[in-house]
UniProtKB/TrEMBL annotation:
Keyword Oxidoreductase: no
Record Gene3D superfamilies: Glycogen Phosphorylase B
Residues of the ALG11 mannosyltransferase N-terminal domain: 62-267
Pathway: Protein modification; protein glycosylation
Catalytic activity, reaction form: an alpha-D-Man-(1->3)-[alpha-D-Man-(1->6)]-beta-D-Man-(1->4)-beta-D-GlcNAc-(1->4)-alpha-D-GlcNAc-diphospho-di-trans,poly-cis-dolichol + 2 GDP-alpha-D-mannose = an alpha-D-Man-(1->2)-alpha-D-Man-(1->2)-alpha-D-Man-(1->3)-[alpha-D-Man-(1->6)]-beta-D-Man-(1->4)-beta-D-GlcNAc-(1->4)-alpha-D-GlcNAc-diphospho-di-trans,poly-cis-dolichol + 2 GDP + 2 H(+)
UniProt xrefs under InterPro entries: ALG11, ALG11_N, Glyco_trans_1
GO terms classed as biological process: protein N-linked glycosylation
Descriptive protein name: GDP-Man:Man(3)GlcNAc(2)-PP-Dol alpha-1,2-mannosyltransferase
Function: GDP-Man:Man(3)GlcNAc(2)-PP-Dol alpha-1,2-mannosyltransferase that operates in the biosynthetic pathway of dolichol-linked oligosaccharides, the glycan precursors employed in protein asparagine (N)-glycosylation. The assembly of dolichol-linked oligosaccharides begins on the cytosolic side of the endoplasmic reticulum membrane and finishes in its lumen. The sequential addition of sugars to dolichol pyrophosphate produces dolichol-linked oligosaccharides containing fourteen sugars, including two GlcNAcs, nine mannoses and three glucoses.
One GO term describing the cellular component: endoplasmic reticulum membrane
Amino acid sequence: MAAHDHLSLCLCDLIRLLWTLLLPCLYLCLLLTVILVLLVMGVRMWLQRARSARRAREQCPAVAFFHPYCNAGGGGERVLWCALRALQNRYQDVSFVVYTGDQGVTGEQILEGAQRRFDIRLPRPVRFVFLKHRLLVEAAVYPHFTLLGQSVGSVFLGWEALTEFVPDVYLDSMGYAFTLPLFRYLGGCRVGSYVHYPTVSTDMLAVVRERNPRFNHADFISSNPVLSALKVVYYCAFALMYGLAGSCSHVAMVNSSWTLGHILALWRAPGRTCVVYPPCDVHSFLDVPLEEDGDRKSHRLVSVAQFRPEKDHRLQIRSFRKLLDRTRTVREALTLVLIGGCRNEEDEERVLMLRGLCLELGLADRVEFKLNIPFEELKRELTGATIGLHTMWNEHFGIGVVECMAAGAVILAHKSGGPKLDIIIPHDGQPTGFLADDEDSYADAMERILGLTPASRLEIRRNARLSVARFSDQEFEASFLAATEPLMSDLER
């Protein structure tokens, strides 16, 4: 037998073998697909029967908010309570539910906390569904592949929420986009989302591509071109999945122009996406008259931000140290006040590390920490502040920035994100605050603000206060109700 004939027989045998192996695999894949489709259809039917039974029992539709940290004291929680208040006032025959992971508290205590921190009282009670597995979305659980881990964890947490209570309308108010397809396709719900900050953004991709170390990009990755390239691939793949999940939203609301640009690029749903500026309690500060601060013997520099790594409190402390080094003659008259909420033990540990940094820099007697304080104390601090300080890179919006401006503090914020694009912009051509982006520029700006005459500071404070009326609770409620009208109108059909 010729060599080429032998080779042909071998190839034919190999093809026959591969076919005999491939055909059962194809049958198996087809069978598994059919089983999966039937399973999904069965689960969907089961959940919809649960919703129908609940509708028949309660005689009213239900709207559910997914907010696992609703008992925290940040700007995202203020959005939740203002949104609930607006919907309750508009829709009298609808019940409202909040999915929360807060344990060890009652619904009454959560509502009391909202009133104490934000001065918000809901017109009617809401039902709380207490989720047991919030740990699945904690960043500390995933030391590596944190974004992917938290997103997968949110799906499991969302499944727990969906099986506990099947709503008619589902609103994700914390940015867990991967729960949207779960509630839409399995729960059969109308779904909407309020996005404070995109889970992944083109800016984050740029940080990795440029091998620039930041709080979410470790030094050992930024210094290694191979690991950086792999992380770019990982981020791109994750961005694709995030975009597909987010595009399931029937209505998408974003909190700023910066967030809008990223969500439009990732979710690609311009017809269903709009900007709804978050509610800022500006009116609570406007009753305090603005006066020249020339008679002040001391100046307080106040920061309002949850104690999370991206808020970059370290930058505030180090910049304050540089300011004191430049102004030794008045250092005893300057105090840095860090106000914020602690959500969990991780945040509390971060506060301990910040206290250690203050001790290391010799600032223990010049920096005050105020954790989870009530609204009235927050108001006193802001109205008595000379400078309002903000240092988060690419802050999605910046409710604390707006509150500082409304309270009459001269704002100094990071030169990026919402503060740069939406908030600290000229009012009638006049400046409303200052921007900076590193330790030196922050120290320079603080020194410049303190060096202004009281009359000059007063003029900036007046312009800032006039400019923030567009961020009031009333403006938010009107915009939020208009945006959610397509979701809520379906309840009446």
